[in-house]
Amino acid sequence: TNEEISCIGCGVTIQSEDKNKIGYAPASSLEKDQVICQRCFRLKHYNEVQDVSLTDDDFLKILNGIGQKDALIVKLVDIFDFNGSWLPGLQRFVGKNPVVLIGNKSDLLPKSVKHKKLIDWMKGMAKELGLQPVDVMLVSGAKGQGIEDAMKRIDELREGRDVYVVGCTNVGKSTFINRIIKQGSGVENVITTSHFPGTTLDIIEIPLDDERALVDTPGIINHHQMAHFVGKQDLKTITPKKEIKPRVFQLNAGQTLFFGGLARFDFVQGERNSFTCYLSNELDIHRTKLEKADELYKKHAGELLVPPGPKDIEDFPPLVGQEFSIKEGKTDIVFSGLGWVTVNQPGAIVKAYVPKGVQVSIRKSLI
Ligand code: GDP
């Protein structure tokens, strides 16, 4: 039958098809009188929130709902994939509510990078992207850096209101919230779930005081992220786990770099110069001549140029190139979800290739 089953924890409609989507419970558990979704199960037994993702429509519903409340919004972005993890249009949805912008995964950046400089850079980017945050912070949910300060600052800024944490999938929202739970409470069962008004979506509330809560909203899928084009194993390779070691290449015009078989960077025109690659340390960079690059990719993608592996290469979208001319100062060419290449040569022309559907962009250098 098609009878709908609801989770006893949060009320979400149960499904057994997709582990990463909201309301998942294994098929074997559906026989029981009381079915609990995986997310609530983890919460109940391990005091740990689990990552779930939403469709665009449901996410918009939540955002609209938040706009009608009096709340502080915490917007989490992945500092390693700033544009790719940006939620466009948030300012419009949150109404008059103040937004705090938090860059996560600060542990990935080289230690030499000054946090102050990075925060200024984030402020500039936010402005360009149409967001006016009341404050900008940097944290590492995984390592704990900056968490305590962020919690203090959030508590000041909320002025007695609820706090909503929003972010797209993969920014590290669950890790961040779990860190807050650990650091903030240490008490069992402090978390509750509740329905979001007007939807059947479960949200997670972590009490801040007797009346107010920190609310975890599900993450939205950002369709331009590289993460959607690679398998689980390959995602591990391209997701940096620790401090990125910049890799510097001296290139002449007419030389090409392949980042595994996932992306490609051509130095089309300009003086011999150095190019700094900020990518997962585990991702191989292969240098070749531009004139041979097409041929090399055709022959060796999936074997010499991995990931994607031999099995995945057949379904992998073709690489599409976009040319950029470097204007002034240090400039990053960003391969969304993969990393970036810093170019420091006004007048140079470069071409960046990514799988069709993935975002590539140019920005003022972050480092
Ligand atoms: P969510 O989808 O936003 O809930 O993200 P998760 O918390 O599941 O994290 C997504 C990925 O980013 C995982 O591979 C995490 O290990 C990683 N991650 C999360 N927070 C951090 C962090 O502070 N530093 C680093 N280096 N990785 C992180």
UniProtKB/TrEMBL annotation:
GO terms for molecular function: GTP binding. It comes from Pradoshia eiseniae. This is Ribosome biogenesis GTPase YqeH. NCBIfam families: GTPase_YqeH. It comes from the Bacteria. Residues 60-223 form the CP-type G domain. SUPFAM superfamilies: P-loop containing nucleoside triphosphate hydrolases (SSF52540). PROSITE patterns: G_CP.
